[in-house]
Write a structure and sequence with these properties.
It is a single chain. The protein is an alpha/beta fold. The chain has a single domain, classed as P-loop containing nucleotide triphosphate hydrolases (Rossmann fold, 3-Layer(aba) Sandwich), CATH 3.40.50.300. It has ten helices and ten strands. The strands form two sheets. A six-stranded mixed beta sheet has the order 6-7-8-3-9-10, with helices on both faces. A four-stranded antiparallel beta sheet has the order 2-1-4-5, covered by helices on one side. Strand 4 and strand 5 form a beta hairpin. Helix 4 packs across helix 5. It is globular. It starts with a helix and ends in a 5-residue tail after the last helix.
Length: 252
């Protein structure tokens, strides 16, 4: 699959933004006035300790969690009342930390399901699915059931399914979870290629700091639902508050 073949399906949006988002769970403030901006073509890391609110914020962005206050804008348009499928059809696509591809289906059928979510017909979805699998080096696995694939390739099928949805913005929730070092190196190449050739913005939630510092243009740090830092990788690496809250004193 050429970058041109994919990119012409993607209408560039200037930014995905939240402003002063607040989320409460039974009296507990999970997100406390968080403002975030992700530009097209940018890789933004979202990091912080477990329970910092990272996945909750992604759920707000993608419509799986309603904010108590604040706003979400896609390309300058308020999408706060849009349902998840309405957001995905406008190019706001996510992967889930613990949701793997459909185990009973082939790799091709999994990616085809993603393509069909954009509204194309069955034939067009199958054609696009094959293009995406080939682009990600999985063409030879197209007719294998995903639960027979190595874990790293199974994860990559999940990414392929998201790519088939023609993302303007791709939100990736811990894509390296469970991967070994070699598989993480492969993931790094995949994310870099998506960013480089599709020009979509990528929000990367990840605990593996080697990936965060290698891939991200900027990093947004949460602690207990609040933003404690936003900056370039070197700024975050050397930020005293971030080190105390999350990174520790060891070199990263």
């Amino acid at each position: 699959m050429t970058s041109t073949a994919v990119a012409r399906e993607i209408a560039t949006a200037p930014a995905l933004e939240t402003a002063d988002v607040v989320v409460n769970f039974q009296g507990l403030r999970a997100i406390d006035r968080v403002s975030l901006r992700l530009d097209s073509g940018e890789v933004l890391g979202l990091i912080g300790p477990n329970g910092a609110g990272k996945t909750t914020l992604v759920n707000v962005l993608t419509g799986f969690q309603e904010a108590d206050s604040g706003s979400v804008h896609l390309g300058g348009q308020d999408i706060g009342r849009w349902l998840p499928h309405e957001r995905s059809r406008r190019g706001l696509v996510r992967t889930f930390q613990n949701v793997l591809p459909f185990a009973g289906l082939t790799a091709l059928e999994n990616v085809e399901a993603g393509a069909m979510a954009t509204g194309v017909g069955r034939a067009g979805a199958r054609r696009r699915a094959m293009e995406v699998l080939d682009w990600l080096g999985l063409a030879a696995r197209a007719h294998r059931k995903v639960d027979t694939l190595p874990f790293g390739e199974e994860r990559r099928v999940g990414i392929a399914r998201a790519v088939a949805m023609a993302p303007q913005f791709l939100l990736m929730d811990e894509p390296a979870a469970g991967l070994n070092d070699a598989e993480c190196d492969d993931l790094k190449l995949v994310v870099g290629r998506i960013r480089r050739e599709l020009a979509c913005g990528i929000l990367l939630i990840e605990h593996r700091m080697s990936l965060i510092f290698a891939l991200c243009d900027r990093i947004h740090v949460l602690q207990q639902g609040r933003t404690i830092a936003i900056g370039l990788p070197d700024e975050i690496r050397n930020d005293a508050a971030v080190r105390q809250a999350y990174l520790g004193e060891e070199p990263v």
